[in-house]
Amino acid sequence: MSVEREVGRAFARMDAVGAGADHLNIVLWSDRERTLKLLRDETPGRALDPAGPLASAAIAVKDNIATLDLPTTCGSRILEGYVSPYEATAVRRLREAGAVVIAKTNCDEFGMGSSTEHSAYGPARNPLDTTRVPGGSSGGSAAVVAAGIARAALGSETGGSVRQPASFCGVVGVKPTYGRVSRYGLVAFASSLDQIGVFGASVADAAGVLEVIAGADPLDSTAAENQVPRYRDSAPQGGSASQPLAGMVVGKPAEYFPPALDRRIRARCDAALDRFRALGAEVRDISLAHTDLAIPVYYIIAPAEASSNLARFDGVRYGLRLEGDGLRAMYEATRTRGFGAEVTRRILLGTYVLSAGYYDAYYRKAQAVRTLIAQDFRTAFASGVDVIFTPTAPTTAFELGAKTSDPYAMYLNDIFTATANLAGVPAMSLPIGRVDGLPVGGQIIAPHFEEDVMFRAAFALERSLGEEAHR
């Protein structure tokens, strides 16, 4: 199939499902005519590779990842109309592999949220049930894949913002090891936690995109030099046909299966663990003792870093600028109008925990506990566990507006995902069934830079569940 025909189908699907502001509101920016024109662009460095591994693939990109041809506003009024003069390394690598960026997707403002309701451009809706959220903050990218517009999309994570919306929308979401994918071109929220992640309609789709965008980058000193395996080849090859995971040990952490967990979500997870056993893996009970501290630690460290990173949005260099009586008044007017309530809340919280008299009591202590959380994972993997399996989220997709008035209840949606960000380990979510017609995600976590092991388990589980994963 020609590239133009494939991309045309993606735009037609975008129209058919109502991806724009008047319905799902999952796509913020797209330009059909310009995109089709770019397909014929022979500019050096911009031409598509017709033989590339992602040739003809239509891919959407979260609105906080820089692109040359479409705005990058981070879902915020303070960057309204801003078009980046450079492109993210991950996007450049997609183009070099033959992919076509068809849209920028709705997101919580600057990636701060768990529902994509905190966007300056209005809330996004879940294509499986438009009365419910798609998750966040990368809800638009998850929904684009769930709606069948694209088979893959880029999102970003600081505490679960790829995996949680993947769970809510019934697609695959992958957060790689911190440093596996360059952050160049990802607008900074919390630099020690931020990562670009991948959504896919299947494990193979997500693996193929991650394989393309991963790797060292001279433009990002945190991008690791580690060799990138062929993730698409991670499907189990050894062992018997009936037990392809023979010899693998899957850890089941008690802290992720508390008594308060919805019994129906627990049942789906238990069924997935039974599949792992049937595939030849050993399921072993383990403990990640500091899990209950992940949310308070995350909501100290992430806002602290955000208060520093977002200081650059001041009306002086780019984006929104409102005049005031003097420089300070201009700053105040611009930031008051430009930032939404959730961003303002996190900047204030971060500034507080970094202030004199509170730094040692909060921020320094949070960093010490973060080390303990990372050590929990190192201990588990050193004990012989190959991967860890947990629920991705404690609930299915909730109704629009259900948690916007209670920030703490909203923050608890990241309770099973934030640990992987704090520890920097790779993790992914894949569909394992439904509850009341809504998707449930299962999370697989692996040691640093062992995404191939994680994909091996995911390929096998996906194949074993088949259509059961979507009903």
Q: Helical content, roughly?
A: 25-40%
Number of helices, counting only DSSP H or I runs of 4 residues or more:
14
Structural class: alpha/beta
- Average pLDDT score: 95
The helix-strand sequence is HEHEHEHEHEEHEHEHHHHEHHEEH
Shape field: globular
Strand order of the largest sheet: 1-3-2-4-6-5-10-11-9-7-8
Residue stretches low in confidence (pLDDT < 50, at least 5 long) are none
Rg over alpha carbons: 21 Å
Termini separation (Å)?
A: 31 Å
Biggest pleated sheet: 11 strands, mixed
What is the strand tally?
11
In percent, how much strand structure appears in the residues?
Answer: 5-15%
Give your account of this protein's structure:
The protein is an alpha/beta fold and 471 residues long. Helix content is 35%, strand content 13%. The protein is built from 14 helices and 11 strands. The protein has an 11-stranded mixed β-sheet, with helices on both faces. Strand 10 and strand 11 form a beta hairpin. Helix 8 crosses helix 10 and helix 8 crosses helix 11. The longest helix is centred in the C-terminal third of the chain and has 24 residues. The radius of gyration is 21 Å and the shape is globular. The model has no long low-confidence stretch (mean pLDDT 95).
